[in-house]
Amino acid sequence: MRRLIAALLYLCATAALAGAQKYEPLSASVQAALHKAVSDSRPAVSSFRTPLEATDWLSTMSPRLEKRIPDRAYRIDLLRSVHYEATRAGLDPQLVLGLIQVESGFRKYAVSSAGARGYMQVMPFWLKLLGRPEDSLFDLRTNLRYGCTILRHYLDIEKGDLYRALGRYNGSLGKPEYPNLVRAAWQSHWDYRQPLRLAGQNR
Of the four, 124, 143, 156, 193, which is 20 to 30 A from 131 by CA? Predict the structure, then answer.
């Protein structure tokens, strides 16, 4: 079973496995809330509680991404952006890394057969639906902002049920393959345990 999971995760690293987020009419209030969520400018603050927390997390995650993204400066920018957008949306950053691994294999310009784009394989209909047709889904932060906002939206619809939310995200609601792949990537490759420290060291 472990070999099968490893083989599937390898496949995810080499091909975009996005399905297609389904177009669903939104109420005016939900549409307005999502529009605001993707439109807010990124403030000049860190999503990490302390500089030491940032150092710990980035130094743990960066080597795991090095083979896919050799450029260290870009890799760190991507990781910081994932952490920021995931935290902003109330998501686990490691979950989002697992989702990106499965969706695009960390390929910025990945395009699925259904037309989903970028790291988080966002469907273009969201641009029109949220009234922002000028946005580029190949832009790093724009793609992460949309992807995290959409996953948060699906989690809210499904009352916190991650399995069903991931199914909606991939357009495969009710099928186990995609949620299981994301969970496997999240837990096997992006698992993170914050180092234990003595009182006064978390600065």
Answer: 156
Amino acid at 29: S
8 band by pLDDT with thresholds 50, 70 and 90: very low
Q: Which of 144, 120, 159, 169 is nearest to 37 (CA)?
A: 144
Q: How far is CA 51 from the centre of its chain?
A: 23
| Burial of 129: CB neighbours in 10 Å, binned 0-12, 13-18, 19+ | middle
Q: Residues of 5-19 as b/e, b for ≥16 C-beta within 10 angstroms?
A: eeebbeebbeebbbb
Helices (H), the chain: 2-14, 28-39, 51-65, 72-88, 93-104, 125-129, 140-157, 162-170, 177-189
pTM of the entire structure? 0.84
